[in-house]
Specification:
Shape: globular
Largest sheet: 3 strands, mixed
Radius of gyration: 15 Å
Oligomer: single chain
Structural class: mainly alpha
Number of strands: 3
Strand order of the largest sheet: 1-3-2
Length: 103
């Protein structure tokens, strides 16, 4: 939640939220109401070339997710981890709707 709050504070996201007639705090409150918070154990060894991304992988494993959606190149290069697919937003949407992403 902390990282999401930091990302939503970036100018490009503030503009998107303003265009959607909402703000960071309102969005975070809504997500907290819907989310199940998981405190995962760390991975036994570094997987990603960015150590901070291992926390994302550990969380995904602990939460037993099917898909990680990210724009982070250090995660995307992995393609998958522990049977969990890692995709950018366009490819994730394509997987969910069973269509090919637009080029």
């Amino acid at each position: 939640m902390t990282e999401l709050a930091d990302v939503l504070d970036r100018p490009k996201f503030r503009a998107v939220l303003a265009g959607a007639n909402t703000n960071r705090d309102t969005l975070l409150t809504g997500i907290r109401a819907l989310a199940e918070l998981v405190d995962p154990p760390p991975l036994p060894a570094q997987v990603s070339r960015d150590l901070d991304d291992d926390a994302v992988l550990a969380l995904a494993i602990a939460a037993q997710v099917d898909l990680i959606v990210s724009g982070d190149a250090d995660l995307l290069i992995l393609g998958n981890h522990s049977g969990i697919a890692i995709a950018d937003a366009a490819n994730a949407l394509a997987r969910l709707t069973e269509t090919e992403p637009e080029k």
